[in-house]
Amino acid sequence: MRSVCLLAVVALVSAEVYFKEEFNDNTWEQRWVQSNHKDDFGAFKLSAGKYFDVESRDQGIQTSQDAKFYSRAAKFDKTFSNKGKSVVIQYTVKHEQGIDCGGGYVKVMRSDADLVGFHGETPYNIMFGPDICGPTRRVHVILSYKGKNHLIKKEITCKSDELTHLYTLILNSDNTYEVQIDGESAQTGSLEEDWDLLPAKKIKDPDAKKPEDWDEREYVDDAEDSKPEDWDKPEHIPDPDAKQPEDWDDEMDGEWEPPMIDNPEYKGEWKPKQIKNPEYKGKWIHPEIDNPEYTPDDELYLYEDFGAIGFDLWQVKSGTIFDNIIVTDSLEEAQAHAAETFDKLKVAEKEKKEAADEAARKLAEEEAKKKEAEKPEETEEAEEDEDKEHDEL
């Protein structure tokens, strides 16, 4: 037990925190550079939102203008490479406005990224976080590899309520990853399988062709089956029970014809019976060969230079709050940070929102009852006014 505890302590001591931002006061503006790529970027403001526990601890930066792009970024205290170790990117997002369309992700970049000119085309290493627009509600994990950006192939559904949620990406040196939401695993896998970073290992043999006599029909018509002689009956026939109306005039109404009805003897289109095809060989499968363009890469996870992080977003309805950002090489360090920030906020926030929702529900009920109670009085007053107008007339 002592050995386990000692190892845990050593792991925490050796952990590196490359970036941490809690937006505890107004000094955040000195660290986060406002891009000048456009002259009408939306403004972030410091806010803890409507529901919080300790305001200074729970406040973050909030988008404050509708239908705007936002672009702000900060340099790391320490530039690093994740060679031979994990990297953990973690932060909280709160869509307090009930977002309908907008991003909530971060971009983690190289140390030489141009933050003054930061915009949508600025190169990045990793883009991670929730994105919501209409029915689309997913967590983006986009990895840059050899100059191209690759979106994860798996669907990861993000949270879309009005509470704070914790998003964590763990990128491991064995080319595996994990995405956590609120500390719970939302997706895991390997970088090679879940992204199209490398060409396929196998490809269809370009020289292979399906033989001309290859029969893929499992069933065929029975050549010995023949259509019965009495099969072909019309689908509709004149109604034998119909009679010409007594007042029918051929000169005025034309020649009378009985109405048509469904033929009870109609059997539909005849088709021969199906039998097993004696020549059936199964579905032809195109043979595969090793892809000559495929080369394994044990360092898909590797980025030689991490040094900046930024928000590059579009939001139709503003109000999202970002907070508690940490970039580290230790999941334990990230979890400890969450315990001191997110875990304390989420309990108080949920309780206060539920209390506010209940109070709003009761108020709405009281107002509805009040309106209902006022209806008879309004009717009586209206009737009295009508009687008075009638007397005057």
From TrEMBL:
PROSITE patterns (alphabetical): CALRETICULIN_1, CALRETICULIN_2, CALRETICULIN_REPEAT
> Which cell locations does it reside in?
Endoplasmic reticulum lumen
Residues annotated as signal peptide = 1-15
Q: Name one GO cellular component term.
A: endoplasmic reticulum membrane
Cystine bridges: which residues?
Answer: 101-133
Q: What biological-process GO terms show up in the record?
A: ERAD pathway; protein folding
Q: Which molecular function terms from Gene Ontology are attached?
A: calcium ion binding; carbohydrate binding; unfolded protein binding
Residues the entry annotates as binding an alpha-D-glucoside: 105, 107, 124, 131, 312
UniProt lists compositionally biased (Acidic residues) regions at 213-224, 377-393
Highest taxon in the source lineage: Eukaryota
Basic and acidic residues bias located where? 202-212, 225-246, 350-376
Keywords of this protein's UniProt record, alphabetized?
Calcium, Chaperone, Disulfide bond, Endoplasmic reticulum, Lectin, Metal-binding, Repeat, Signal, Zinc
Task: Name the SUPFAM superfamilies on file.
Answer: Concanavalin A-like lectins/glucanases (SSF49899), P-domain of calnexin/calreticulin (SSF63887)
Annotated region Disordered: the residues are: 185-250, 350-393
- Pfam (any one): Calreticulin
State the family it belongs to: Belongs to the calreticulin family.
Protein known as: Calreticulin
Which species is listed as the source? Caenorhabditis angaria
